[in-house]
Amino acid sequence: MKLEIQVCSQSLARVMAELGFEQDSLWYYAKFEDDSHLDVIGAIPHNPTYQLIREGTFDFVQFNEIYAAYTIAELGEILPIYYSLVRQETSWCCANPDNSEDLRSVYADTGANACALMCIQLRKEGLRW
After folding, report:
1. Cα 25 vs. chain centroid, distance in angstroms?
2. How confident is the chain (129 residues) per 10-residue block, as mean pLDDT?
3. Domain map of the chain by residue range?
4. Rounded to an integer, what distance in angstroms lies between the CA atom of residue 8 and that of residue 92?
5. What pLDDT score does 36 carry?
6. Distances 17 to 11, 66, 96, 121 between C-alpha atoms, Å
7. SS3 state at 122
8. DSSP for 85-116?
9. φ, ψ at 123 (rounded to 5°)
């Protein structure tokens, strides 16, 4: 399975960082100042600007930006326990199936992105857990 579908997207990782989520993950999106990323063991080109890098491999590398690229497992730990993830035919849905009054649900192309979107929605609504 590709790593890119096991972690949330770079754009969602950035929003989560801006909303104050703890930046602690096994993987990170990093935008490097120069070609120093070529020395990072396990750097995976994500797009022309960002690389996916593993925790602990970038201690001496200079970068402009870095965001936690939360894995689907990490996002499952961040979300309140009563939210669940369901794979549908062409997308993933994150919702609270046990509470008919909680109509929040988000859909995304990957399970990690659906969980990240729900975390973002809950934080923007001012909910803390």
Report:
1. 9
2. 87 96 92 58 60 73 81 95 91 86 86 96 83
3. 3-68, 72-124
4. 13
5. 52
6. 10, 9, 24, 14
7. helix
8. EEE-SSSEEEE-TT-TT---EEEESSHHHHHH
9. -65, -40
